[in-house]
Amino acid sequence: MVLFDVPGWSIPSAPSLPETSKKRKRPTSTSSQLLSTEINLEKIVERLKNTTRPATSKSSAKDRTSRPRNNSKSVNKKIISRPKPLAIPAEKGERPAKKQRIKRDAGDVPKPGSMLSGDHDTNLTPLQKGMKRSLGGARFRVINEDLYKSDSRTAYSMMQNDRSVYEDYHIGFRHQVQSWPTNPVEYYVTMLARYPHKTVIADLGCGDAALARALIPKDMAVLSFDLVSDGVYVIEADICSKIPLPGSEGAITEKSNGEGQIVDVVVCALSLMGTNWPNCLREAWRILKPLGELKIAEVTSRFTDVGDFQNLVSSIGFRLSSKNNDNTHFTLFEFTKSSRKGMTDKEWTKILSRAGTLKPCEYKRR
To answer: Where is the composition biased (Basic and acidic residues) (predicted)?
Structure first.
Protein backbone atom coordinates (compact mmCIF):
# COMPACT_ATOMS: atom_id res chain seq x y z
CA MET A 1 0.00 0.00 0.00
CA VAL A 2 1.35 3.37 -1.02
CA LEU A 3 1.44 6.05 1.58
CA PHE A 4 -0.44 9.21 0.93
CA ASP A 5 -2.12 7.74 -2.05
CA VAL A 6 -4.88 10.36 -2.22
CA PRO A 7 -6.78 11.02 -5.36
CA GLY A 8 -5.65 14.28 -7.01
CA TRP A 9 -2.34 14.19 -5.08
CA SER A 10 1.08 13.09 -6.59
CA ILE A 11 4.74 13.19 -5.40
CA PRO A 12 7.43 13.75 -8.07
CA SER A 13 10.01 10.99 -8.45
CA ALA A 14 13.62 11.51 -7.31
CA PRO A 15 15.98 12.74 -10.00
CA SER A 16 18.28 10.00 -11.44
CA LEU A 17 21.98 10.53 -10.73
CA PRO A 18 24.79 9.32 -13.03
CA GLU A 19 26.16 5.98 -12.01
CA THR A 20 29.52 6.34 -10.26
CA SER A 21 32.08 3.79 -8.97
CA LYS A 22 35.24 4.11 -6.95
CA LYS A 23 36.96 1.42 -9.09
CA ARG A 24 38.77 2.79 -12.14
CA LYS A 25 37.85 1.05 -15.31
CA ARG A 26 40.56 0.27 -17.91
CA PRO A 27 40.05 1.63 -21.36
CA THR A 28 38.73 -0.99 -23.70
CA SER A 29 39.49 0.63 -26.97
CA THR A 30 42.30 -0.74 -29.22
CA SER A 31 43.96 2.66 -29.61
CA SER A 32 44.33 3.04 -25.86
CA GLN A 33 45.94 -0.44 -25.62
CA LEU A 34 48.53 0.42 -28.28
CA LEU A 35 49.33 3.66 -26.53
CA SER A 36 49.91 1.85 -23.25
CA THR A 37 52.16 -0.69 -24.93
CA GLU A 38 54.31 2.02 -26.50
CA ILE A 39 54.71 3.74 -23.15
CA ASN A 40 55.77 0.52 -21.45
CA LEU A 41 58.27 -0.26 -24.22
CA GLU A 42 59.83 3.15 -23.87
CA LYS A 43 60.27 2.56 -20.14
CA ILE A 44 61.99 -0.79 -20.73
CA VAL A 45 64.38 0.74 -23.27
CA GLU A 46 65.17 3.55 -20.87
CA ARG A 47 66.00 1.04 -18.09
CA LEU A 48 68.33 -0.90 -20.38
CA LYS A 49 70.18 2.26 -21.29
CA ASN A 50 70.68 3.10 -17.63
CA THR A 51 72.24 -0.32 -16.84
CA THR A 52 74.83 -0.01 -19.63
CA ARG A 53 75.97 3.48 -18.67
CA PRO A 54 79.34 3.72 -16.79
CA ALA A 55 79.21 4.38 -13.09
CA THR A 56 79.10 8.07 -12.19
CA SER A 57 80.27 9.92 -9.18
CA LYS A 58 76.73 9.77 -7.83
CA SER A 59 76.98 6.03 -7.21
CA SER A 60 76.79 5.12 -3.58
CA ALA A 61 79.76 4.10 -1.44
CA LYS A 62 78.17 0.70 -0.97
CA ASP A 63 78.21 0.08 -4.73
CA ARG A 64 81.83 1.15 -4.97
CA THR A 65 82.96 -1.24 -2.24
CA SER A 66 81.02 -4.15 -3.66
CA ARG A 67 82.65 -3.92 -7.08
CA PRO A 68 85.84 -6.04 -7.65
CA ARG A 69 89.00 -4.01 -7.98
CA ASN A 70 90.79 -4.45 -11.27
CA ASN A 71 94.46 -4.18 -10.26
CA SER A 72 97.67 -6.15 -10.66
CA LYS A 73 97.22 -8.08 -7.40
CA SER A 74 94.09 -9.79 -8.65
CA VAL A 75 95.99 -10.91 -11.75
CA ASN A 76 98.78 -12.43 -9.69
CA LYS A 77 96.31 -14.45 -7.69
CA LYS A 78 95.07 -16.26 -10.75
CA ILE A 79 96.30 -19.84 -11.12
CA ILE A 80 98.45 -20.07 -14.23
CA SER A 81 98.74 -23.55 -15.70
CA ARG A 82 102.33 -24.54 -16.53
CA PRO A 83 103.62 -27.24 -18.87
CA LYS A 84 104.09 -30.70 -17.38
CA PRO A 85 107.70 -31.68 -16.64
CA LEU A 86 109.36 -33.96 -19.11
CA ALA A 87 109.29 -37.61 -18.07
CA ILE A 88 112.51 -39.51 -17.83
CA PRO A 89 112.78 -41.60 -21.01
CA ALA A 90 113.00 -45.34 -20.52
CA GLU A 91 116.08 -47.16 -21.67
CA LYS A 92 116.04 -49.00 -24.97
CA GLY A 93 114.21 -52.28 -24.68
CA GLU A 94 112.72 -51.38 -21.32
CA ARG A 95 108.99 -51.05 -20.83
CA PRO A 96 108.17 -47.48 -19.79
CA ALA A 97 106.83 -47.05 -16.31
CA LYS A 98 103.22 -45.93 -15.83
CA LYS A 99 104.32 -42.98 -13.73
CA GLN A 100 107.78 -41.50 -13.55
CA ARG A 101 108.88 -39.17 -10.83
CA ILE A 102 111.27 -36.30 -11.36
CA LYS A 103 114.69 -36.94 -9.87
CA ARG A 104 115.90 -33.76 -8.25
CA ASP A 105 119.46 -34.82 -7.67
CA ALA A 106 121.31 -35.43 -10.95
CA GLY A 107 124.19 -37.17 -9.16
CA ASP A 108 121.93 -39.78 -7.71
CA VAL A 109 119.55 -40.95 -10.44
CA PRO A 110 118.57 -44.51 -9.83
CA LYS A 111 117.24 -46.53 -12.70
CA PRO A 112 113.62 -47.66 -12.93
CA GLY A 113 112.97 -50.91 -11.14
CA SER A 114 115.23 -50.20 -8.19
CA MET A 115 113.67 -50.40 -4.76
CA LEU A 116 115.59 -47.25 -3.82
CA SER A 117 114.71 -45.28 -6.93
CA GLY A 118 112.24 -43.16 -4.95
CA ASP A 119 114.74 -41.70 -2.48
CA HIS A 120 113.62 -38.19 -3.44
CA ASP A 121 109.84 -38.76 -3.43
CA THR A 122 108.30 -35.48 -2.43
CA ASN A 123 105.03 -37.13 -1.49
CA LEU A 124 106.58 -39.04 1.42
CA THR A 125 106.67 -37.71 4.96
CA PRO A 126 110.01 -37.47 6.78
CA LEU A 127 109.09 -40.61 8.74
CA GLN A 128 108.29 -42.53 5.55
CA LYS A 129 111.54 -41.39 3.94
CA GLY A 130 113.50 -42.55 6.97
CA MET A 131 111.80 -45.94 6.91
CA LYS A 132 112.51 -46.30 3.21
CA ARG A 133 116.19 -45.47 3.70
CA SER A 134 116.37 -48.03 6.51
CA LEU A 135 114.89 -50.70 4.27
CA GLY A 136 117.31 -49.74 1.50
CA GLY A 137 120.24 -49.90 3.90
CA ALA A 138 119.18 -53.37 5.06
CA ARG A 139 118.91 -54.50 1.44
CA PHE A 140 122.43 -53.19 0.73
CA ARG A 141 123.92 -54.97 3.74
CA VAL A 142 122.42 -58.31 2.72
CA ILE A 143 123.75 -58.01 -0.85
CA ASN A 144 127.12 -56.82 0.39
CA GLU A 145 127.60 -59.82 2.66
CA ASP A 146 126.57 -62.20 -0.13
CA LEU A 147 129.17 -60.68 -2.44
CA TYR A 148 131.93 -61.03 0.15
CA LYS A 149 131.06 -64.62 1.07
CA SER A 150 130.65 -66.04 -2.45
CA ASP A 151 133.06 -66.35 -5.36
CA SER A 152 133.00 -64.02 -8.37
CA ARG A 153 131.17 -66.51 -10.61
CA THR A 154 128.27 -66.75 -8.17
CA ALA A 155 128.16 -62.96 -7.84
CA TYR A 156 128.19 -62.55 -11.62
CA SER A 157 125.29 -65.01 -12.03
CA MET A 158 123.33 -63.23 -9.30
CA MET A 159 123.71 -59.87 -11.05
CA GLN A 160 122.82 -61.27 -14.47
CA ASN A 161 119.69 -63.00 -13.21
CA ASP A 162 118.40 -59.87 -11.49
CA ARG A 163 119.85 -56.53 -12.58
CA SER A 164 118.03 -54.73 -9.76
CA VAL A 165 120.45 -56.40 -7.31
CA TYR A 166 123.33 -54.46 -8.89
CA GLU A 167 121.33 -51.22 -8.88
CA ASP A 168 120.22 -51.59 -5.26
CA TYR A 169 123.75 -52.42 -4.15
CA HIS A 170 125.35 -49.34 -5.70
CA ILE A 171 122.57 -46.99 -4.61
CA GLY A 172 123.04 -48.25 -1.06
CA PHE A 173 126.79 -47.93 -1.48
CA ARG A 174 126.43 -44.26 -2.45
CA HIS A 175 124.43 -43.59 0.71
CA GLN A 176 127.08 -45.32 2.80
CA VAL A 177 129.88 -43.24 1.24
CA GLN A 178 128.23 -40.10 2.57
CA SER A 179 129.04 -41.16 6.14
CA TRP A 180 132.75 -41.80 5.43
CA PRO A 181 135.35 -39.26 6.56
CA THR A 182 137.01 -39.63 3.15
CA ASN A 183 136.44 -41.54 -0.07
CA PRO A 184 139.38 -43.51 -1.54
CA VAL A 185 138.08 -42.90 -5.06
CA GLU A 186 138.33 -39.13 -4.56
CA TYR A 187 141.85 -39.62 -3.28
CA TYR A 188 142.81 -41.52 -6.46
CA VAL A 189 141.13 -38.92 -8.67
CA THR A 190 143.32 -36.21 -7.14
CA MET A 191 146.45 -38.33 -7.38
CA LEU A 192 146.00 -39.63 -10.92
CA ALA A 193 145.01 -36.22 -12.27
CA ARG A 194 148.71 -35.29 -11.93
CA TYR A 195 149.83 -38.19 -14.13
CA PRO A 196 150.89 -37.60 -17.74
CA HIS A 197 148.16 -37.32 -20.35
CA LYS A 198 147.17 -40.51 -22.16
CA THR A 199 147.96 -42.60 -19.08
CA VAL A 200 145.97 -45.83 -19.39
CA ILE A 201 144.17 -46.73 -16.17
CA ALA A 202 142.17 -49.90 -15.50
CA ASP A 203 139.58 -49.51 -12.74
CA LEU A 204 138.69 -53.04 -11.55
CA GLY A 205 135.37 -53.19 -9.72
CA CYS A 206 134.58 -49.62 -10.72
CA GLY A 207 130.98 -49.43 -9.49
CA ASP A 208 129.54 -46.19 -10.91
CA ALA A 209 132.81 -45.46 -12.77
CA ALA A 210 133.45 -42.30 -10.76
CA LEU A 211 137.14 -42.49 -11.66
CA ALA A 212 136.41 -42.51 -15.39
CA ARG A 213 133.85 -39.71 -15.16
CA ALA A 214 136.40 -37.49 -13.42
CA LEU A 215 139.57 -38.33 -15.37
CA ILE A 216 138.43 -38.86 -18.96
CA PRO A 217 137.69 -35.10 -19.33
CA LYS A 218 141.33 -34.57 -18.21
CA ASP A 219 142.60 -36.51 -21.23
CA MET A 220 143.14 -39.77 -19.33
CA ALA A 221 142.23 -43.19 -20.72
CA VAL A 222 140.21 -45.00 -18.04
CA LEU A 223 138.92 -48.53 -18.68
CA SER A 224 136.20 -49.40 -16.14
CA PHE A 225 135.14 -52.98 -15.40
CA ASP A 226 132.36 -54.38 -13.24
CA LEU A 227 129.74 -57.13 -13.20
CA VAL A 228 127.11 -55.06 -15.03
CA SER A 229 127.62 -52.54 -17.83
CA ASP A 230 125.96 -49.14 -17.87
CA GLY A 231 126.34 -48.86 -21.64
CA VAL A 232 128.59 -45.80 -21.35
CA TYR A 233 131.62 -46.12 -19.07
CA VAL A 234 131.42 -49.59 -17.55
CA ILE A 235 132.53 -52.73 -19.40
CA GLU A 236 130.84 -55.91 -18.19
CA ALA A 237 133.38 -58.41 -16.88
CA ASP A 238 134.24 -60.73 -14.03
CA ILE A 239 137.42 -59.06 -12.76
CA CYS A 240 138.55 -62.35 -11.14
CA SER A 241 138.36 -64.16 -14.46
CA LYS A 242 139.51 -63.14 -17.94
CA ILE A 243 139.42 -59.36 -18.22
CA PRO A 244 138.95 -58.37 -21.90
CA LEU A 245 142.35 -56.67 -22.25
CA PRO A 246 145.58 -57.83 -23.92
CA GLY A 247 148.43 -59.30 -21.88
CA SER A 248 149.99 -62.64 -20.94
CA GLU A 249 151.59 -64.30 -17.92
CA GLY A 250 154.73 -65.57 -19.61
CA ALA A 251 156.41 -68.94 -19.49
CA ILE A 252 156.67 -71.13 -16.41
CA THR A 253 160.35 -71.90 -17.00
CA GLU A 254 161.76 -68.36 -16.68
CA LYS A 255 160.95 -64.95 -15.23
CA SER A 256 159.24 -62.41 -17.45
CA ASN A 257 156.73 -59.57 -17.45
CA GLY A 258 154.50 -61.19 -20.06
CA GLU A 259 153.70 -59.51 -23.38
CA GLY A 260 151.19 -57.25 -25.09
CA GLN A 261 150.13 -55.12 -22.15
CA ILE A 262 148.73 -51.59 -22.58
CA VAL A 263 147.77 -50.62 -19.01
CA ASP A 264 149.91 -48.25 -16.93
CA VAL A 265 147.93 -48.24 -13.67
CA VAL A 266 145.46 -50.68 -12.09
CA VAL A 267 143.15 -49.41 -9.33
CA CYS A 268 141.34 -51.72 -6.91
CA ALA A 269 139.36 -49.39 -4.66
CA LEU A 270 137.35 -51.51 -2.20
CA SER A 271 136.87 -54.13 -4.95
CA LEU A 272 138.74 -57.18 -3.58
CA MET A 273 135.49 -58.95 -2.78
CA GLY A 274 134.53 -62.60 -2.93
CA THR A 275 136.34 -65.70 -1.78
CA ASN A 276 138.57 -65.78 -4.89
CA TRP A 277 139.74 -62.14 -4.79
CA PRO A 278 143.48 -63.09 -5.36
CA ASN A 279 142.52 -63.94 -8.94
CA CYS A 280 141.76 -60.23 -9.45
CA LEU A 281 145.40 -59.40 -8.63
CA ARG A 282 146.52 -62.17 -10.97
CA GLU A 283 144.60 -60.44 -13.76
CA ALA A 284 146.06 -57.10 -12.72
CA TRP A 285 149.57 -58.49 -13.16
CA ARG A 286 148.70 -59.94 -16.58
CA ILE A 287 147.36 -56.66 -18.04
CA LEU A 288 149.95 -54.29 -16.50
CA LYS A 289 152.98 -53.10 -18.40
CA PRO A 290 156.44 -53.82 -16.88
CA LEU A 291 156.86 -51.62 -13.77
CA GLY A 292 153.18 -50.78 -13.95
CA GLU A 293 151.46 -49.57 -10.76
CA LEU A 294 148.87 -51.37 -8.64
CA LYS A 295 146.87 -49.21 -6.22
CA ILE A 296 144.78 -50.96 -3.56
CA ALA A 297 142.43 -49.38 -1.03
CA GLU A 298 140.72 -51.64 1.51
CA VAL A 299 138.71 -51.38 4.70
CA THR A 300 141.16 -51.56 7.60
CA SER A 301 138.97 -53.87 9.67
CA ARG A 302 139.15 -56.56 6.99
CA PHE A 303 142.85 -57.31 7.53
CA THR A 304 143.63 -60.25 9.78
CA ASP A 305 147.32 -59.45 9.33
CA VAL A 306 148.59 -56.63 7.12
CA GLY A 307 151.97 -58.31 6.73
CA ASP A 308 150.35 -61.54 5.44
CA PHE A 309 148.36 -59.51 2.94
CA GLN A 310 151.50 -57.77 1.64
CA ASN A 311 153.30 -61.11 1.31
CA LEU A 312 150.39 -62.61 -0.63
CA VAL A 313 150.34 -59.70 -3.10
CA SER A 314 154.13 -59.92 -3.47
CA SER A 315 153.91 -63.65 -4.26
CA ILE A 316 151.65 -62.84 -7.23
CA GLY A 317 154.38 -60.62 -8.72
CA PHE A 318 154.34 -57.17 -7.07
CA ARG A 319 156.73 -55.14 -4.98
CA LEU A 320 155.44 -52.87 -2.21
CA SER A 321 156.23 -49.20 -2.87
CA SER A 322 154.32 -47.46 -0.08
CA LYS A 323 151.56 -47.90 2.49
CA ASN A 324 149.25 -45.33 4.05
CA ASN A 325 147.26 -46.25 7.12
CA ASP A 326 146.75 -42.74 8.50
CA ASN A 327 143.01 -43.03 7.88
CA THR A 328 141.00 -44.89 10.51
CA HIS A 329 138.70 -46.50 7.94
CA PHE A 330 140.94 -47.46 5.02
CA THR A 331 144.47 -48.63 4.30
CA LEU A 332 146.09 -47.66 0.99
CA PHE A 333 148.84 -49.65 -0.74
CA GLU A 334 151.07 -48.83 -3.70
CA PHE A 335 152.66 -51.80 -5.52
CA THR A 336 154.86 -52.03 -8.63
CA LYS A 337 154.76 -54.93 -11.04
CA SER A 338 157.88 -57.12 -11.00
CA SER A 339 158.94 -59.99 -13.22
CA ARG A 340 158.18 -63.56 -12.17
CA LYS A 341 157.76 -67.04 -13.56
CA GLY A 342 154.43 -68.30 -14.70
CA MET A 343 152.60 -70.36 -12.04
CA THR A 344 151.02 -73.77 -12.23
CA ASP A 345 147.44 -74.49 -11.21
CA LYS A 346 148.70 -76.09 -8.01
CA GLU A 347 150.59 -72.95 -7.07
CA TRP A 348 147.54 -70.79 -7.74
CA THR A 349 145.39 -73.06 -5.62
CA LYS A 350 147.81 -72.53 -2.75
CA ILE A 351 147.60 -68.76 -3.15
CA LEU A 352 143.80 -68.88 -3.22
CA SER A 353 143.81 -70.79 0.07
CA ARG A 354 145.34 -67.69 1.70
CA ALA A 355 142.39 -65.47 0.74
CA GLY A 356 141.37 -65.43 4.39
CA THR A 357 143.89 -62.67 5.04
CA LEU A 358 140.98 -60.39 4.08
CA LYS A 359 137.84 -60.99 6.15
CA PRO A 360 134.40 -60.41 4.63
CA CYS A 361 132.54 -57.29 5.72
CA GLU A 362 129.80 -58.34 8.14
CA TYR A 363 127.12 -56.25 9.79
CA LYS A 364 125.38 -56.52 13.11
CA ARG A 365 121.89 -57.95 12.91
CA ARG A 366 119.30 -55.33 13.82
So the answer is: 40-49, 91-108
Measured distance CA(247)–CA(261) in Å, rounded: 5
Burial 11-41 (b: 16+ CB within 10 A, else e): eeeeeeeeeeeeeeeeeeeeeeeeeeeeeee
Q: Quick one: pLDDT at residue 143?
A: 81
pLDDT digits (tens, 9 = 90+) for 149-194: 899 999 999 888 888 888 888 788 888 888 788 899 999 999 999 9
Residues 210 and 170 in one domain: no
| Residue 216 DSSP one-character state | G
pLDDT digits (tens, 9 = 90+) for 89-143: 444 444 544 443 433 343 343 343 333 444 455 676 765 555 555 555 567 778 8
Nearest Cα neighbor of 287 from 341, 247, 238, 319 is 247
**Cβ contact 318:306 at 8 Å:** no
Q: In terms of residue numbers, what domain contains 158?
A: 126-174
Note the pLDDT of residue 52.
Answer: 52
* E-state strands within 42-82: none
Inside any domain, residue 291: yes
**Same domain for 293 and 233:** yes
| pLDDT confidence tier of residue 317, bands split at 50, 70 and 90 | very high
Do the beta carbons of residue 184 and residue 269 sit within 8 Å?
Answer: yes
Q: 218 φ, ψ to 5°?
A: -95, 20
Do residues 349 and 210 both lie within one domain? yes
User: Phi and psi (nearest 5°) for 107?
Assistant: -80, -10
- Using CA atoms, how far apart are residues 44 and 100, in angstroms rounded to an integer? 62
Query: C-alpha angle 235/241/247, rounded to 5°?
Result: 80
What does the alpha-carbon distance between residue 25 and residue 238 come to, in Å, rounded to a whole number?
Answer: 114
